[in-house]
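Lab notebook: predicted structure, single chain.

Context: the supervisor wants predicted structures on file for every construct in the current expression panel, including those that have not yet been purified. This is the next one on the list. No modifications to the sequence; it matches the entry in the shared construct table.
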Amino acid sequence: MTPPLQPDPGTQAGLPACVRHPDRLTGLSCTRCGRPACPECLVEASVGFQCVDCVNAGRKVQRRATTVAGAPLGEKPLLVPVLIALNVLMFAITAVLAQDPIDNDRSALFHELSEYPPLVAHGEWWRVLTSGFLHFGPIHLLVNMVALWFLRDMELLLGRARFALVYLLSLLGGSAAPYVFGALNVEGAGASGAIYGLLGGLIVAVVRLKQDKHVLMNVVGVLALNLAISVSFPGVSLLAHLGGLVVGAAVTFGMIYAPPAQRRAWQIGTVVLVSAALVGMFAIRTSQIVDMFVIG
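Prediction complete. Output recorded below exactly as produced.
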């Protein structure tokens, strides 16, 4: 379909000029803004013809389809490969320094970055974060990185910024639980808290998206199996797993159950509340540990 023909040149006296071509008189106009436009400046729309300016403006304000969390559709996972690379890099560095790819925790750097409650309580706060990028041996690393890769769809659902927040807060939740409820003389490391946080978030997402009950049962089954392993094998921190799981599920809930009209406020509020709870837990436990050493 093409724009209507221009009136006969002999009848153009008194016609307005095209807004984009002042030297062209026209009897046509944009159905959206009403401004006069020549055939060259009109584009077919759902109703009538619109000028190219209105068409371009409409394209700019057109909303892109998003997920329930507000993330744009069609993106590819970026943070998951980056996180895997960082974990592998840290393992390689500690293995080289330890001169042992199996017992890489012999490295002095490993013990400077791992979570050790007495040292955390005495000011070495970076340990609650850096410990999440360390692993005890290649098997520990492999299990966590494979799990992280299979959970990459969480990045697509949440979007990169929200995914980063869920991962970070879950990691801190996995550090907070053993710090608050565990033994003081136990050294902790691993991305398991963050991984379990994503797994908890996945369960929330499956319920929110009303997936088939078999999908939910499969995810719950994987979670139950992993928790059973946490209990069965010595040296595996069940507290770290549970801490990450609870935090990840809570943050994801706030991210994907937020009403669309108030999504940003709900999501920011969820992050602030969970962060405040974690800071409070660390602060209270730190005070207790410091008092123990002072008394002792």
